[in-house]
Amino acid sequence: MPKVFESELPSNALSATYKTQGAFVDCYYSEVAKDISLDEYIQAFYTTPLFKLERSLLSLATFKRASDHDALALSLGKSDRYSIWTVEGREANQILMRDFTGNTRSWLMVQKASDSEAGTRLYFGSVVVPKEKTESGQASFGGLFHLLGKFHQIYSKALLTSAYKRLLNS
């Protein structure tokens, strides 16, 4: 079982600007003992059985369907859409996806593991834009956000673990 760690965002993360704007931003990582490209990570992440369940539920709720073929097109840069998400930013080692409401984002990044010859650090994180800000500038996310906080943390780690396992076995 891979170890998944919660950490601060790397300074070059595409999602970092949202943190400075008061959004909720999280960051998880795991290290796999293989060299993994961003393309491979995107494809693995969006085609795990766990994520397929999420995309099925999203499809029922939003009528925005996605397939493994769509994940491949996204991973290869042949599409900038996947289910409810659109590419907001992409670099050689990371991608930031915005949902169709503009309220949330998902971020994936690969980085050479610093303490091994062959290995990759896989990052995954989310952004939640505040519903509103008070006059003092404090972010307000709403009650549902706070109720789902622990579930989100567990689910984020499970998604990263699923992608890790898929990449390790590929």
What can you tell me about this protein's structure?
This protein has 170 residues and is α+β, with helices and mostly antiparallel strands. The protein has one domain: Alpha-D-Glucose-1,6-Bisphosphate, Chain A, domain 4. The chain has helices spanning 16-20, 38-46, 49-62, 68-75, 143-147, 149-168; strands at residues 5-6, 24-25, 28-32, 81-82, 85-91, 94-99, 104-112, 120-128, 132-133, 139-140. The strands form two sheets. Strands 1, 2, 3, 4, 5, 6, 7 and 8 form an eight-stranded antiparallel sheet that branches. Helix 2 (38-46) packs antiparallel against helix 4 and helix 2 packs across helix 6 (149-168). It is globular. The protein starts with a strand and ends with a helix. The relative contact order is 0.23. The mean pLDDT is 89.
